[in-house]
């Protein structure tokens, strides 16, 4: 019976000491321990979330890079195409210009040849005229040395005049 | 910390070791195992360490007696040892009585009180040092005692407090942790030879149970009392019957806490002592070949029981508090609730709080 009868003294001491123990542990042990645990768990959670975020960021970066690369490749292709087109155009243009130039030069040459020819012809004509005049003069001079011949010529002219 | 402990223990032992001659007369008397065992599990005014042929090694503890009208008297229990009288006082067994039969209240520092003070001191020092190492090793992995105790703290928080109490668990964490480590540590201490059987004392478990009851009552909300006085989901005539049943339940819950812890720990001690007593009953050292393995087996089992009982006391305390702070649920099915099966069981039994005791984990520990 003594075993199951709670003694007043022990109840008193148990209450007193247990409450002091509770207060001391709550203040000096549980508060810092639970606080640290929460802090650490928060830290771990934050780190995990950060890692996830970094992973997502990395993925988006990678995707961005790929996009950039694809764009660059496309741009390069376009530039190449454009370059080729431009080159072809330039060649074409050069060809055109060259043929035009050639035509022009030919034309010019033809013109100058024509001109030269004309000039030469005129000169030939002039020289021929001069020459014939000279020959005529010389001929005339020789023929008219004799007065009868002179008379004859004058008569001839006069006859013409009369006819007119 | 270790040095401090050693010093403390040294002081304690030096203070009162006294060798007194063993009573030769007792040798002839028949060995009374019941008396010996009860003496070992009960509280005492002296700390009896061990006996040799040269005498008993005993620490006499102070007696603090209060007599209404006469005031306090403080003296060493040495003066009233072995049936001696001191002033008006005398020990009747372990009970302090007055010679003239007047009333006396015994507030002595008994063996249990001394053990209680020491173990509390050790707990404070140990956990304060653990708390300090949390501050020192901020952001690092736990080490040493810290890493040993941390899983228990986290277990009490996550598996006991959060699951049983819910979002308001934080207010009750200090009590739950204190009661868990107090019971566990003292259960273990009680297993050491020569130590006091503190958690196997009904006064200690009663005090703890009453504190749990008070915390439950002071944190109870309207929903808790509605469940007691007007149990929902029960036919009207039954509700009238349920009121006394539920009211008894309020008292029975802490009472069961008190009895469970006391009985489990005391029973373990009695079994071990019984096996040892067998040697003396048969007056043969050969009995040791039977007693020692069995005693060892029970001792190891008691190591498990020490932890288990601390866990059960804490878990049930958390569940009682959880029942008191639980908010009313519109849907009575507790869908998706932590205590799903437990909630249903409670309903089927007409909302009786005895449903708590039907939980398999708890039933096994009875």
From TrEMBL, chain A:
Gene Ontology molecular function terms on file: proton-transporting ATP synthase activity, rotational mechanism; proton-transporting ATPase activity, rotational mechanism
Location of the protein in the cell: Cell membrane; Endomembrane system
Top-rank taxon, per record: Bacteria
Main location: membrane
Membrane topology: Single-pass membrane protein
Residue runs in coiled coils: 37-130
Electron transport listed as a keyword: no
GO cellular component terms, A-Z: endomembrane system; plasma membrane; proton-transporting ATP synthase complex
Entries under Pfam families matching the protein: ATP-synt_B
Residues that span the membrane, as ranges: 12-30
Keywords: ATP synthesis, Cell membrane, CF(0), Coiled coil, Hydrogen ion transport, Ion transport, Membrane, Transmembrane, Transmembrane helix, Transport
Similarity annotation: Belongs to the ATPase B chain family.
Job of this protein: Component of the F(0) channel, it forms part of the peripheral stalk, linking F(1) to F(0). The b'-subunit is a diverged and duplicated form of b found in plants and photosynthetic bacteria. F(1)F(0) ATP synthase produces ATP from ADP in the presence of a proton or sodium gradient. F-type ATPases consist of two structural domains, F(1) containing the extramembraneous catalytic core and F(0) containing the membrane proton channel, linked together by a central stalk and a peripheral stalk. During catalysis, ATP synthesis in the catalytic domain of F(1) is coupled via a rotary mechanism of the central stalk subunits to proton translocation.
Self-association state and partner proteins as the record states: F-type ATPases have 2 components, F(1) - the catalytic core - and F(0) - the membrane proton channel. F(1) has five subunits: alpha(3), beta(3), gamma(1), delta(1), epsilon(1). F(0) has four main subunits: a(1), b(2) and c(10-14). The alpha and beta chains form an alternating ring which encloses part of the gamma chain. F(1) is attached to F(0) by a central stalk formed by the gamma and epsilon chains, while a peripheral stalk is formed by the delta and b chains. F-type ATPases have 2 components, F(1) - the catalytic core - and F(0) - the membrane proton channel. F(1) has five subunits: alpha(3), beta(3), gamma(1), delta(1), epsilon(1). F(0) has three main subunits: a(1), b(2) and c(10-14). The alpha and beta chains form an alternating ring which encloses part of the gamma chain. F(1) is attached to F(0) by a central stalk formed by the gamma and epsilon chains, while a peripheral stalk is formed by the delta and b chains.
Name of this chain's protein: ATP synthase subunit b
Organism in which the protein naturally occurs: Hymenobacter polaris
From TrEMBL, chain B:
Membrane topology: Multi-pass membrane protein
Subcellular location: Cell membrane; Membrane
Signal sequence bounds: 1-18
SUPFAM superfamilies on file: F1F0 ATP synthase subunit A (SSF81336)
GO cellular component, one term: proton-transporting ATP synthase complex
Protein keywords: ATP synthesis, Cell membrane, CF(0), Hydrogen ion transport, Ion transport, Membrane, Signal, Transmembrane, Transmembrane helix, Transport
TM annotation in the entry: 113-131, 172-192, 198-218, 238-255, 261-282, 294-321
Any one Gene Ontology molecular-function term assigned to this protein's record: proton-transporting ATP synthase activity, rotational mechanism
Function: Key component of the proton channel; it plays a direct role in the translocation of protons across the membrane.
Protein family: Belongs to the ATPase A chain family.
Name the record gives this protein: ATP synthase subunit a
Organism expressing this protein natively: Hymenobacter polaris
Gene it is expressed from: atpB
